[in-house]
Amino acid sequence: MEDLNYNNESSDYIKERAYKRAQKRLKEIKGFYWHAFWYAVVNIFIIVMIVSNSDGNIWHFGTYSTPLFWSIGLGFHALGVFGKNLFFSKSWEERKMREYMEKDRRDKDNFRFE
Fold first, then answer.
1. Taking a C-beta distance cutoff of 8 angstroms, is the pair 44, 36 a contact?
2. What whole-number distance in Å separates Cα of residue 38 and Cα of residue 72?
3. Is it the case that residue 56 has pLDDT exceeding 90?
4. How far apart are CA 76 and CA 86, in angstroms?
5. Rounded to the nearest 5°, which phi and psi values hold at 28?
6. How far apart are CA 98 and CA 95, in angstroms?
7. Dist CA 27 CA 35 (whole Å)
8. The pTM is what?
9. How does DSSP classify residue 113?
10. Which residues, 6+ apart, have CB-to-CB distance to 66 below 8 Å?
11. What are phi and psi of 22, to 5 degrees?
12. How far apart are CA 50 and CA 67, in angstroms?
């Protein structure tokens, strides 16, 4: 009977799939950072041009409409890339839990009667 090594083949397949997922994730994150970079560059340029060509009256909606609406788009792009747990991720939750547990332990140690 022929000895087939399925474990090695499946291990290679799993590694390749993990590599492809990591590559896709990196491409998404890189795309977001380029989006944020061009957001900053273009909007700084637009605001500088408006300020330099206006009579000092920059407090109208047209001055800030492009940055406002583009920031909404950039926010949705961030949600798409980083997910809904952008600020309150699992690591943040775990870090806060450890922090509160440590504080509780210190408080108990401070109020211990000897």
1. no
2. 14
3. no
4. 11
5. -65, -45
6. 5
7. 12
8. 0.65
9. -
10. 42, 43, 46
11. -65, -40
12. 13
Cα–Cα distances (Å) from 24 to 28, 31, 36, 42, 87, in that order, read 6, 11, 19, 27, 22
DSSP 8-state class, residue 27: H
Distance CA 91, CA 82 (A): 13
**Alpha-carbon distance values, 19 to 26, 82, 87 (Å):** 10, 19, 26
Supply the pLDDT for residue 112. Answer: 62
The pLDDT of residue 1 is 46
Q: Please identify which residue in the block is written with the tokens 């380029």.
A: 34
Q: Are 63 and 50 in contact (CB under 8 A)?
A: yes
Residues in the chain: 114
Backbone dihedral angles phi then psi of residue 55, each to the nearest 5 degrees: -90, 25
